Amino acid sequence: MIDRTGLAEFLRNRREALQPEDVGMLRGRRRRTKGLRREEVAALCHMSTDYYSRLEQERGPQPSHQMLASIAQGLHLSLDERDHLFRLAGHNPPARGSVSEHVSPGLLRILDRLEDTPAEVVTELGETLRQSPMGVALTGDTTRFTGPERSIGYRWFTDPGSRLLYAPEEHGFLSRMYASGLRQILTLRGPDSQAAHLAELLLERSEEFRRVWEEHEVGVRPHDVKHFVHPEVGALELHCQRLIDPGQSHSLLVYTAVPGSESHEKLRLLSVIGAQALG
């Protein structure tokens, strides 16, 4: 059963504890609000201000799992806080660990500060959970996929268009890398895991995957330098740094170019193109 009073108090408390700079927003000179405004939180949670306001006013319908997950991310809640939110709203909390899609506040704070840098938070199966604006400009919105297509490894073997963003000379290596990574995750998580399900689907649907899978390779690690072929700025040579959250099996991937290089200048151009697209 929903605890409307407790839910409203908890939401107000967390909203007032957050500052604009905590969530990647600019603080206006005349700002007098304690913490974030309701409309700012609503925007972070991808919901209407009216819907969010009614929750703080102890009104409105019982929030769904999806709404609560959005609120938990928008308010940068820890796992314990997220679970508390779900219980206040009358729901059982989602699972933790490798299957969790709740991005930790620490990774979100870093991502919020990377607006001008391509970056993304991904699961161990290569499912994009969050992207920076420049991350979207580089690879497109990869959070839009559903079902098995959410995994970049699955798309690699089933959607030829997914390969257009990567230099052709890298394709053979990337096929080996995705198959190797999936095999290691399957071994770690077991035969009833999502990794096992993806492997079964790919064995049915991709001849190339079957061929690479039979090699039984493990330990094929990503290269530090990735070669992209962007449809508007052309070839890009980007270094990829990875920050891992072991508790959630999530990684923050950050792509940078050597200062003064041609790729660095192309990233600057891409930031202008991306800003115009958002505008």
Automatic annotation (TrEMBL):
<dbReference type="InterPro" id="IPR001387">
    <property type="entry name" value="Cro/C1-type_HTH"/>
</dbReference>
<dbReference type="InterPro" id="IPR010982">
    <property type="entry name" value="Lambda_DNA-bd_dom_sf"/>
</dbReference>
<protein>
    <submittedName>
        <fullName>Helix-turn-helix domain-containing protein</fullName>
    </submittedName>
</protein>
<dbReference type="Pfam" id="PF17765">
    <property type="entry name" value="MLTR_LBD"/>
</dbReference>
<feature type="domain" description="HTH cro/C1-type">
    <location>
        <begin position="34"/>
        <end position="82"/>
    </location>
</feature>
<dbReference type="InterPro" id="IPR041413">
    <property type="entry name" value="MLTR_LBD"/>
</dbReference>
<dbReference type="Pfam" id="PF13560">
    <property type="entry name" value="HTH_31"/>
</dbReference>
